[in-house]
From TrEMBL:
Keywords: Acyltransferase, Transferase. It comes from Streptomyces luteolifulvus. It comes from the Bacteria. This is 1-acyl-sn-glycerol-3-phosphate acyltransferase. One of its GO terms (molecular function) is 1-acylglycerol-3-phosphate O-acyltransferase activity.
């Protein structure tokens, strides 16, 4: 068994995130009560802003460990991200170390954060990678869809990929759901079906979140 990422570190990261996010923007959190209080959970987060991960880490009701591309672990960020319990992943290959650590984390009842689109884009869940389905089916952990809705289409951004400072950013947590069909199958067909199931749930949640927030 590999060494688990630090839950205490993730809690420290959550507190840092709270301070930063509320200091620089105006987060509005909806549906946090839907997140199971205990046991393994996978957050499936849309990704259109560079702050999506830190924002969810800061406002989530539980310490969260995100799978983060290894390119982000540069300079002083490398030890910092590791200390606050985040998981480095190589997206160019099958990173078995990251996979094992993520599954061990879920087996221990932790919260894993994933950007199922793989990279920052439109944030509309239009193109999902199979990684989320694999972790959900393999671990049996419920998936909680999370919509981060900022104001990236408005002028006033100082840095590309960030909402304007002091603008409102909505974080909407959805109802947990099981991605698998209950059979425990991990075949390619089962994962494809799970990915399709996940996409429908995430897209529906995003549409509902936009209606709810007026975004």
């Amino acid at each position: 068994m590999t060494e688990l990422p630090s839950v205490r570190g993730a809690e420290v990261g959550r507190r840092i995130g709270v301070g930063l996010m509320y200091g620089l923007w105006k987060p509005r959190v909806l549906g946090a009560w839907r997140v199971p209080a205990t046991g393994p959970v996978i957050f499936a987060v849309n990704h259109s802003h560079n702050i999506d991960g830190p924002m969810v880490m800061g406002v989530a009701p539980r310490p969260t460990h995100f799978l983060i591309k290894k390119e982000a672990f540069v300079g002083p960020l490398d030890p910092f991200l590791t200390r606050i319990g985040q998981l480095k992943v190589d997206r160019e290959t099958t990173d078995r170390t990251a996979i094992t650590r993520a599954l061990d984390l879920l087996a221990a009842g932790g919260v894993l954060g994933i950007f199922p689109e793989g990279t920052r884009g439109e944030g509309d869940f239009a193109s999902l990678r199979a990684g989320l389905a694999y972790f959900a089916v393999r671990s049996g952990a419920p998936v909680v869809p999370v919509a981060v809705l900022g104001s990236s289409d408005r002028p006033g951004r100082l840095i590309k990929g960030l909402p304007p400072l002091r603008s409102r950013v909505d974080v909407v947590f959805g109802n947990p759901f099981d991605a698998g069909d209950g059979s425990g199958r991990r075949t390619r067909k089962a994962l494809d079906e799970a990915t399709e199931r996940i996409q429908k749930q995430l897209t529906a949640h995003l549409e509902n979140a936009r209606r709810l927030t007026g975004r």
